[in-house]
Amino acid sequence: MQLRNVTPDDVDAYVRMRCDPVMMTELGGPLPRERMPDKVRRDARDAAADIAWIKMIIPDPAAPGVVAGSVTIWSHDTDDGPLSEIGWMVLPPFQGRGLAKRAARALLEQARDDGRWGDVHAFPATGNGASNGICRSLGFRFAGEQDVTFADRVLRTNHWLITPHTDLNPTNPTTQD
Ligand SMILES: CC(C)(COP(=O)(O)OP(=O)(O)OC[C@H]1O[C@@H](n2cnc3c(N)ncnc32)[C@H](O)[C@@H]1OP(=O)(O)O)[C@@H](O)C(=O)NCCC(=O)NCCS
To answer: For the residues of 74-136, what is the DSSP string, one character each?
Structure first.
């Protein structure tokens, strides 16, 4: 598996991730396709400027054109100051193989080594079994339920946070994660 920065050519992958009703079940429903070119352009600009880490997941480096999903760390302002957040998406044909967990771990290892993000928070919907499983098994701490606005919709979420320097669980070689 490899992670690479999003580029302006990733509109198709964004449409498959964010405009699909099944992919967006736990994220408030599909987003309009017409919003994707601008969203990708802004994300590619922020990734290139190193303002946010917006990575496409490439399952097989020998086939760099095949995108399985994305994993992102970004910072945004809250009433309590800036907050670093991680999010992930993996497309249906690639789900259930541990790819989201491996990609999230890889980006959190980069965050641990870089140091700039501090504690990293995640807000999966309370019913999102796979995402809550990823948080639990990577070493995130549960901090309670919270309403969160995502793409203009309010979601009931579980708030998790991790201090990558101290909390990130080691890879378990027997489970190839
Ligand atoms: C959530 C999502 C990223 C998971 O991707 P994935 O690559 O299939 O996940 P993984 O294979 O890495 O599995 C992650 C963990 O969740 C567990 N899991 C998978 N499905 C589960 C479910 N329905 N209930 C409970 N646990 C589940 C897996 O067993 C694994 O845990 P383990 O390693 O301790 O066994 C993917 O389903 C997705 O993109 N969904 C739509 C978008 C979305 O909801 N994004 C997340 C927003 S917070």
So the answer is: EEEEETTEEEEEEEEEE-GGGTTSSHHHHHHHHHHHHHHHH-TT-SEEE--BTT-HHHHHHHH
